[in-house]
Amino acid sequence: MIIRQANQIDLKNIMEMYKSCVAGMQKNNIDQWDKSYPNEDIISSDLQAKTYYVSEIEREIVGGINIDKKQDPTYLEIDWDDKTASFLVVHRLAVKENFWSQKIGKKLMDFAENLVLEKKLKSIRLDTYSNNPKAINFYKKLGYNQLGTINLKPNKKHYYCFEKLLI
């Protein structure tokens, strides 16, 4: 498996990966994402910003992650452990459903953590839907601390914010 920066020609395959991930989430009664999110416009914007990375196995995109400095304005409501601006934010981590048991999500998060360290930053922030126990447990197992709750999207309000200090 390789992890690389994605580009516009990957868009179709990235969206197929999200479609598979969303289908798997729905089978597990997790309604965090749907056909409207994440959408092509959002991913295309990530690609243009050069902040989106994919994991590939034999040239098949099996996972993806966006890593940047953008945080929702509601993040200001959280009492972060890292009080500086020395962080990156993870968005839209996803893995194709039939690859869920292959630790690809962990490898993408390891990649994000290494990116933070390479940039000599201190921490990673992220949020996940409060009705997604798989994601909540995943981040906790990776050593992320749950620091509070924010409200996003009118129909799915509660999201838990997580942070991991790396230095």
**Count of helical regions:** 4
Which percent bin holds the helix content? 25-40%
Q: If you average the pLDDT, what whole number results?
A: 96
Determine and state the CATH class: Alpha Beta
Gap from first CA to last CA: 27 Å
Count of domain modules: 1
The tally of beta strands, per DSSP, is 7
Beta-strand percentage?
Answer: 25-35%
Describe the structure.
This protein is an alpha+beta fold. The chain has one domain: 3-Layer(aba) Sandwich (Aminopeptidase), CATH 3.40.630. Helix content is 30%, strand content 30%. Helix 1 packs across helix 2. The chain is globular.
State the main characteristics.
4 helices; Aminopeptidase; globular; alpha+beta; 30% helix; 167 residues; seven-stranded mixed β-sheet
Question: What's the short version?
Answer:
The chain has 167 residues and is an alpha+beta fold. Helix content is 30%, strand content 30%. The longest helix is centred in the first third of the chain and has 17 residues, at 11-27.
Layout of secondary structure:
Layout: E1 2-5, H1 11-27, H2 40-48, E2 52-57, E3 60-68, E4 87-95, H3 104-118, E5 123-129, H4 133-141, E6 145-151, E7 158-165
Parallel strand pairs: 4-5
Antiparallel strand pairs: 1-2, 2-3, 3-4, 5-7, 6-7
